[in-house]
Amino acid sequence: MCKTGSSMAMAMVMLATTGLVSGGSPLARMVIEGVYADWSEVPIAFVDPANDNGNSVADFGNVWLANDEDYVYVRFEIGALANLQTVGTPLRIYFDVDRSAATGWPIGNIGSDFVLLFPERRGAEQTSDTFDAADLGHADLSLVSGPTVAGTEFELRVRRNAVFPIRGTEIFAGPDFDIVFEGQDGGGASQEWAPDGPVGHTYTLATGTLPPYATIPLDGEDPDSVRLVVYNVLNDGLVERPEVFERILGALQPDIICFSELADTNEATIADRLEDMLPLDDGESWHVYKSYDTAVAARWPLSMQAGDTIPSTGNSQAMALVDLPDAEYDVDLYVISAHFKCCGSMGGSEDQQRQQQSDANVNWFRDLREPGGHVNLPIDTPFLIAGDFNMVGGPQPLDTLLDGNIIDQATFGADSPPDWDLSNSADPIPLHNAGPGAYSWRNDSSSFAPGRLDFVIYTDSVMTVAGSFVLNTLDMSREDLAAHGLQAQDTAEASDHLPLVVDFKPGRLLPGDADHDGDVDLDDFRVFADCLAGPGVAPNPSLPGVTEQDCLDAFDFDEADGDVDLQDFGVFEHVFTGG
């Protein structure tokens, strides 16, 4: 089971509002991150037969279509593991937006006015005599796809009011459009069509409005949580662009920061900058440990500092135990700030380097848990790894961090589930604070579309997530910006990466405490009743955002059958009544 934090599930519930209108077309607001829970109420638009793709990478299968007031959403299966942004043979998605075969490039029975091109990662306006009449970059289209790593299916969005360069009209101005998918071989010859023929599939745009995006507040909802900020500051931006970072960090008020791209800034300078931007009470100073371009900074003392794992990741990283205040926390928190190898594609040398880094870290997680090695933690000490992971190739390096599947076992030992209870680690998948997004990197001058490159992977058996988000000031209202002392362009000017924010509550979850409020009460009793109904409980009637995993974490007392059932009720009743 893939483990994700309940804060992400809460935000997904707030985000994914779906209704069927306009003759069955789904009006839905999606977040593009490569997780498909928000598509659960969207029907399959059409299905293409399997094994008819010749020499094309893509063997299309199920296709889903949806829209809201702002975007057209497309989800599709390709039948093979590939990375959409670097796919090995060309993949095309054609749109006949005026539904006239007489205009646009002829494709089967349609005239394509607009095409999405992969691996070119852009769009093109098309005319009847020109395949690529005008270029449309990903920024022109607000094109975002997911997952950023390789997958067998993908989702993407295109802004409805994006404008044709030649026609000067909005791309999706009409009430409907026809769509056709094409998979080519390495020489550009057509090998696969969906629908076959090709014959365009007609989609009628849903009309109506959805509730506004439910923004995620910047102020933490739990005063007892520890706030972690993960930030690639782009070429020592903390020093080079201090004013904008002062506004951002001042608004976020982090307790711990995992920095990357601080290669030319020393520890003392980092501490000085933070003391200027985020002065502490009672004359206290920020504590910083740095290794090459990564650093861990904390309001509290650091110990067990190390600049790499043993055996080595091959890339160095900053690691330290944060001494949390004993009066408030029963445990400390071990933090790894990592910067994984950039760039490349699935299976390439860069991907192999990322795999080495993941293998090395999983071996180090084992060393943290087991006595007698190079480093030892007190039992049940929470730990996490966070940073710019540059996951742009295959999914295995990320999967290894989550499930402990070590590939180079000759160097790094046998597989080792990372958490203290020998389960998977968790990824909270933070969403944008003020708009539907999950990407953490964006550079409008790059050919690569926005992607999810930054991560926090943590041991969720010994700490819980009280909240999480990605700060994107571009989508914030004037009122929210002013309230937090921010400006609309702040995150764009600071770095090509957005800051990730996760609020943690260190320590084991109290059994039966589904809402993480430190008490087992009537709210948890109501949630138990919902969880007893079975899997797939989100959205939860009693506590929106409680997921199947949350149910298991709180109520699967026997931990034997991976289910919440009547056998667990007797134990929960005992906990609830305090017997």
Q: Percentage of helical residues? A: 10-25%
Supply the CATH architecture of the largest domain: 4-Layer Sandwich
Taken together, the total number of domains comes to 3
CATH fold name of the largest domain? Deoxyribonuclease I, Chain A
**Strand residue content:** 25-35%
Question: In CATH's first tier, which class of the largest domain applies?
Answer: Alpha Beta
Separation, N- and C-terminal Cα atoms: 32 Å
Question: What's the total number of strands?
Answer: 27
Which structural class fits the helix and strand makeup? alpha+beta
CATH evolutionary superfamily of the largest domain: Endonuclease/exonuclease/phosphatase
The dominant shape is globular
How many H/I helices?
Answer: 13
The profile of the biggest β sheet is: 7 strands, antiparallel
- The low-confidence runs, each spanning 5 or more residues with pLDDT under 50, are 1-23, 535-540
Q: Output mean pLDDT.
A: 91
Radius of gyration: 24 Å
